[in-house]
Write a structure and sequence with these properties.
0% of the residues lie in helices and 57% in strands. The chain has 202 residues and is mainly beta.
Length: 202
């Protein structure tokens, strides 16, 4: 699951061919888009949506009114290392897989930077916020599963900060963070499973 913050709206992706559109103030569903591909992660660049194609190495630009694909870009990685998250910041697309993060020119798909994280971090989704990349990490400590949100230096890939996520998972039960999105002013949205609720990380 993934969330993107737009102009007073939230977009939710759940690996299906449909995006939900929510009012960011009330959480009420106000629309949806039917897509041409199954979307695992979604991002808003101020004009259009970007979706990570589930099970592939492609990201697609999406018309926010019709849901039609405007253009498609391929991430230069192995087909088995499929895309997991997409973010927009500093004029670039940032795409995560299980092993790497790619910085891509959104105009032509040109690779600008690629790095592996210097500290393990489960990259189910990423966000670009306050000049840094953020991803969700999930660690097991004894019988407890602890969810953290990692701040990543976009130049080196080093994890420079860890923030305890709003929830702790006990065994196989409880909630944990699946998706992240940046929003002004100074807020980060997170999708929490299994309830699907959104929480604000100040």
């Amino acid at each position: 699951s993934s969330v993107a913050a737009g102009d007073r709206v939230l977009w939710l992706a759940d690996r299906s061919r449909r995006l939900l559109k929510l009012d960011s103030a009330s959480g009420r569903e106000i629309g949806s888009l039917n897509l041409e591909f199954p979307c695992i992660s979604v991002e808003w660049d101020g004009e259009k949506l970007w979706g990570a194609d589930y099970g592939s190495v492609k990201v697609h630009a999406i018309d926010p009114v019709t849901g039609r694909t405007r253009m498609s870009l391929s991430v230069p990685t192995d087909e088995k290392n499929s895309v997991r998250g997409v973010a927009f910041g500093a004029g670039s697309l940032w795409v995560s897989t299980r092993e790497e993060i790619f910085r891509i020119d959104p105009r032509d798909g040109r690779l600008l930077k690629k790095f592996q994280l210097t500290t393990p971090c489960i990259q189910l989704d990423i966000a670009y916020f306050n000049g840094a990349l953020w991803c969700r990490d999930f660690q097991t400590v004894g019988a407890r599963h602890l969810a953290e949100i990692c701040r990543i230096d976009p130049e080196t890939g080093a994890v420079v900060q860890r923030i305890r996520a709003p929830t702790v998972v006990e065994g196989e039960k409880g909630n944990h963070v699946l998706g992240l999105a940046a929003a002004d002013p100074g807020r980060m949205w997170a999708v929490v499973s299994p309830s699907g609720d959104e929480v604000i990380q100040e």
